[in-house]
Amino acid sequence: MTTSRATPHEKTEVVGCPQCDWVSRRVPLLTNEQSECPRCGYILEDGNNAGQYTLLAVAIAALVLLFASLSVDFIRYSAAGVEQSMTLMDAAWQLSYFHEKVLAVLVLLTVIIIPCIYLLCLIWVYSQLETSGPNRLNLYLLRTMEHLKPWLMTDIFLLGTLVALVKISSLAEVRLLEGFWGFSVFVVLLLFVYERAKRTPVWQYFSVMNRPDLSAQAGLTAGEQGLMTCTLCHALNSRDSRNCYQCTEPQKTSWWRKPGATLALITAGAIMLIPAHWLPVMETVRFGNDQPATIIGGVTELWQSGDKPIAIIVFVASLVIPVAKVLVLGVLLLLARWQTPAMVRNRLLLFKVTDWIGRWSMIDVFVVAILVALVRSGTVMSVYPGSAAVSFAAAVVLTMLAAMSFDTRLFWREADR
């Protein structure tokens, strides 16, 4: 019995831009070529497609390294004759032990579970390209991968680990063990898979619905033609469609991308920043003396100890970025009604930068998780999570959700009026 390779549905001649709603004509792409939206510069398609088997091999290697890193020690430290070691899982388990279950779940999800699910989905989908035709399961897994991407924070966790080691290097001898190096290689492989997978569109291989007969014209917006662009796969659909014909993503989610929802999330994030910076983010007990530390206190300590580059990184990630993100998103939302074509590109660039750097604020949460898991030697020296840690994590998550709900098409709609 022979199996024929699945072939994608015929591509449409036009494609919509999820960032500005502009409809563009498709052009043939060679290797290393990209197709950009002529209106806003958004990359619509990429001709540098990674090989199916290359992605599969790297994804499997990354998954094996992740499981291997979980089974061996991550870091070991010794101070005052006391030696302690931690595994990667301890970063979550120790937080849970100190009744910070919300933080424990957040660390477990963003560092281990979500990356694992992402890789498993990718491995399954790309292994089906040769044999599977229209398939709802594969489409569901592809959509799951897209929704999980913003929450892949292994690279931030790795940087947080290095910051935590700098914090205690003057108080203890620290050794990086097999788990750390295995996890570091895993992060590199995951980033490779992430970058290459988004350049290899495979929606058409599994589409279960026929392409609707839409008379879409390039050079106009989708809205002007009674259409809407799927924000996930960029396919054009009728405004009355309940699901995208190509990826089956629900299209009736306009409540999520309304200014009111974005404003509510921004406000909630701003409120959570107040206790996050006012209360101690962690407490250090050294020879019986309790020393609570706020975020700004930790930055000051790093600066005074001579670790000025690390102090600057923590200051920017934990103080500047969260506050700036709230202010920038709020200003962009409130000024959306006062747009001109000359302003749009600058404001769009500002939004994209703000959205990209926002996730890096999680570095302080990961620093706390590492120190709590590693430094637990009773009254000799132990670190405990502070009451500000949950507030800070909530502020980061809320501002990330605010950026996801921000509809950049508002810029162009108001500028065109």
Automatic annotation (TrEMBL):
It comes from the Bacteria. InterPro entries: PqiA-like (IPR007498), PqiA-like_proteobact (IPR005219), PqiA-PqiB_transport (IPR051800). One of its GO terms (cellular component) is plasma membrane. Keywords: Cell inner membrane, Cell membrane, Membrane, Transmembrane, Transmembrane helix. It is found in: Cell inner membrane. The chain crosses the membrane at residues 53-72, 102-127, 148-168, 174-194, 260-279, 310-335, 356-375, 381-403. It is a multi-pass membrane protein. Belongs to the PqiA family. NCBIfam families: pqiA_fam (TIGR00155). This is Paraquat-inducible protein. The lineage of its organism: Bacteria, Pseudomonadati, Pseudomonadota, Gammaproteobacteria, Alteromonadales.
